[in-house]
Amino acid sequence: MLKKFPPKYSSMPAGKVKIVVFGSYNAGKSTFIQAIDPESRHVEAHAENGDTTVALDFGRTSVHNLQVYLFGTPGQERFEFVRQIISRGMDAAILMVDCSIGIDEFTRNIHLALSDQGIPMAMMLNKCDLSEACPAMARRELPGPLLFEISAQDPESARAALSRFVDSIAGDL
Ligand SMILES: Nc1nc2c(ncn2[C@@H]2O[C@H](COP(=O)(O)OP(=O)(O)O)[C@@H](O)[C@H]2O)c(=O)[nH]1
Ligand SMILES: [Mg+2]
What single DSSP character describes residue 99? Predict the structure, then answer.
């Protein structure tokens, strides 16, 4: 079971926003951060047998006069402790959802935990370029005021959604 996120306490100075990107493995978190910041960093730590054990992303951009820092988290259940560490001091969260497949339990749990904590959250309904994408299903299953239908492979759609999200929370920062 997913543990509660730490209580909200922004660690960021004025004018800087920390946004943590959650979502299952393969949802498009790394693609999204890369689309936002082509110079973003992707780090993978490998186990000795060559399997990927944990993957993280870090990217920066500015939205209007705000500096936005994006932190991608690993999507495997067992890395809950890594998500806890990366989440500290976040101002807002993005939940990346692959809406070309059904909503998995991991995504539901993250959605519940973030909603419970009252963290400003955007849901990025990703892979809308695919013919099998069904954003209506995701909207039904993951209710919330801030849903954006995107294709992270299209940097323009990623940027537009991020910018609208930051605009919507800017008053609370
Ligand atoms: N068709 C399509 N594929 C995507 C999109 N976003 C990501 N992908 C693909 O989905 C796979 C997983 O993406 P990735 O960013 O690595 O997912 P992560 O595990 O959440 O970081 C990759 O093969 C991406 O190229 C999208 O908007 N449309
Ligand atoms: Mg990734």
Answer: T
Sheet strands (E) in the chain = 16-23, 41-46, 52-63, 66-72, 92-98, 121-126, 147-149
Sign of CA dihedral 18, 138, 160, 115: negative
* Contacts of residue 171, Cβ cutoff 8 Å, sequence gap at least 6: none
What CATH number is given for 16-172 in this structure? 3.40.50.300
The predicted model scores a pTM of 0.92
The confidence score (pLDDT) of residue 10 equals 65
**For the chain, what are the domain ranges?**
16-172
Residue of 21, 25, 26, 83 to test ligand 1 pocket, by largest number of atoms within 8 Å of CB: 26
